[in-house]
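Quick one, probably user error.
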């Protein structure tokens, strides 16, 4: 028994609909990638490279590469590139820069310590209106906190840029080939056998 589905609203040829969706996906993917390249100084282009490397590694292991594998490869490549770029920039800075940054942080900390708490805080919590001494931040702890904050920031930005690059890459691949990367091959189902 064969089933025919007819649309009452639109009478579109499925081949044209598929071409339309593929063309839309290709155009959208290119717009996403070009926009992201301009905003990320090209780092987002490493996302497709990371997804490809992930695919090749899974293939060498005899496994199929899934959607999560390609996304993880894209994000990882972007994060590694951001860390390398940050390390290169940090080594190229003039030697006096880090001392100036530390001095600015200490000055801001000292200025905020002298400032009294806002009036509303003393109404909400009367104990907070009494002056207290703040513990002094050691240089080692300040450096560790700065490194930790930098690492978290790079991880979040790398995940964001890698995801944008992965989405753009996925749309471009779908638009060009008609197949989603990481998706298993379609299985034809005979309606008469079911």
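Nope, works fine. Designed sequence:
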């Amino acid at each position: 028994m064969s089933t025919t589905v007819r649309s009452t609203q639109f009478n579109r040829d499925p081949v044209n609909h598929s071409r339309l969706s593929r063309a839309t996906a290709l155009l959208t993917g290119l717009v996403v990638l070009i926009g992201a390249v301009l905003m990320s100084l090209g780092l987002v282009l490493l996302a497709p490279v990371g997804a490809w490397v992930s695919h090749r590694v899974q293939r060498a292991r005899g496994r199929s590469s899934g959607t999560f594998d390609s996304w993880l490869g894209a994000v990882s490549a972007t994060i590694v590139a951001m860390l390398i770029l940050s390390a290169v920039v940090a080594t190229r800075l003039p030697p006096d820069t880090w001392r100036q940054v530390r001095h600015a942080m200490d000055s801001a900390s000292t200025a905020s310590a002298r400032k009294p708490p806002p009036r509303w805080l003393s109404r909400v919590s009367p104990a907070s209106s009494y002056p207290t001494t703040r513990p002094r931040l050691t240089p080692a702890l300040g450096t560790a906190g700065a490194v930790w904050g930098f690492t978290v920031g790079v991880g979040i930005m790398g995940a964001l840029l890698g995801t944008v690059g992965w989405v753009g890459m996925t749309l471009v691949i779908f638009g060009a080939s008609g197949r989603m990367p990481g998706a298993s091959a379609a299985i034809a189902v005979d309606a008469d056998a079911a």
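The CA atoms of residues 64 and 128 lie 59 Å apart.
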